[in-house]
Amino acid sequence: MTQPYSQFKAMLAVTRASLQAMFRSPNAILFSIFFPMVFILVFGFIGNNGSPAFSIAMNKNADTANAVYQGLRSMPNIRFVREKDSASLRSDLVKGRITGEVNIQPNTDSASNARYIVQFRATTASADKYAIFLPMLENVINRIDKASQVNQPTIAVTKTAIETVREYRTIDFILPGQLGFSLLSMGVFSVAFLFFNLRHQLVIKRMFATPVSKTSIMIGEGIGRVIFQLMTSVIVIAIGHFAFKFTLVHGLLTFAEILVLSFIALLVFMGFGFIVSGLAKHDSSIPALANVITLPQFLLAGTFFSISAFPAWLQPICRVLPLTFFNDAMRKIAFEGAHLTDCWPQIFSLLGWGVIIYAVAIKIFRWE
Question: Are residues 281 and 132 in the same domain?
């Protein structure tokens, strides 16, 4: 009596073969390690060079009917954000999301002749920004004073309160985005080219003659790529941590949670690769189809800079992209010190995309 065919053993065999092929593929090494490392090195060395923009929270009780406020409003690189509740404001200050809070009040101190007191509150998380903003604020006051009549008291004096918090580096924002870049590139391009070639070389057609199901093939190939990509993720995180002081807030726990999140994201992103391989008629059409999926996400999903830098009408589109959910969760874990349990909205949204993507991938899967 013949034994029933083992789909599990078939899946493991496909996984082993896939993993071996991955280590022999220069393209896999290039997309998974080389490109992300180039970006990490560039951003790690250049830091925050360039003309900065400032996000300022104006205290809801501030006096805005004065020349100081109007002078700040006229500065093109200053963006005033609506003040949230005190807990949210403090969270934004501690994590360096905003440069600081400004509160302009009429001067009630008889020891000073200034008409207004400008109170500025910030944390060391935005030290690179407020170190430039404060001289700008003083310049605004000086310009107003020079334009006023001689012997008039200064329009305002400033009082600053800087709280010392954990240091946030550029690499803490950049590395999670580059890891997402690597995962999406690997999931789409590698899977798409592999399955197209397997179908073009009639390998999948031969598998059709065996009891192997297409689900086992897809899972086996997926596991092989997950193992390989997690290895490259370890390399990327290790170099970022030891070479550029990338922060692992909770040490090995943060590292493990990053790998778990990367595992989930890679499974979802590989579905795009299966879709591209099913749609492609020729190997020359794969890059175009893959870039239609990946390029908008690379540019719009907060990979290189915050989504808040985009116009307001574009931000809702940016926030529903699969890579955005991964980047947001990664930064909450790596940049803010949150745990996976704090990222369920992003994880469930990512898994929701996965259900849709794989439903389409299985639907258009072709043996030849």
Answer: no
